[in-house]
């Protein structure tokens, strides 16, 4: 959230679409929400289930790799991200 205003202008200078940049940033933030050591979703899951974060964190690994692959596709193939907005006229 703090870096978006700083990154916006340079990304526009490099020709990155603002919608594509937004989707990339949201995907990155969502991955950060469930990866240790500061994954807020891990703390919430720990409180809800009563299990420790040490027991919950290894179960996140498969989801991490799936999300990482999705992030790579989103980042390097902008047409995937921009398909629906292009249908709406953006």
Description:
The chain has 90 residues and is mainly α. It is built from 6 helices and no strands.
What is the helix content? over 70%
Q: Total number of helical segments?
A: 6
- Termini separation comes to 23 Å
Low-confidence stretches: none
Strand content: under 5%
Order of helices and strands: HHHHHH
Largest sheet: none
How many β-strand stretches? 0
| Oligomeric organization of the protein chains | single chain
The outline comes out as elongated
The structure class reads: mainly alpha
**Mean pLDDT score, rounded?**
91
**Alpha-carbon Rg, integer:** 16 Å
Question: Features of this protein?
Answer:
90 residues, mainly alpha, 6 helices, elongated
Quick overview of this protein structure:
The protein has six helices and no strands.
Chain-wise SSE layout:
Elements: H1 4-13, H2 18-33, H3 40-49, H4 53-56, H5 61-76, H6 78-87
Helix pairs in contact: 2-5, 5-6
């Amino acid at each position: 959230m703090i870096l978006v205003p700083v990154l916006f202008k340079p990304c526009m200078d490099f020709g990155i679409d603002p919608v594509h940049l937004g989707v990339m940033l949201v995907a990155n933030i969502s991955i950060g929400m469930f990866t240790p050591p500061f994954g807020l979703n891990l703390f919430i899951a720990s409180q809800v289930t009563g299990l420790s974060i040490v027991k919950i964190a290894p179960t996140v690994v498969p989801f991490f790799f799936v999300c990482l692959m999705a992030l790579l596709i989103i980042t390097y193939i902008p047409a995937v991200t921009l398909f629906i907005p292009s249908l709406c006229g953006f």
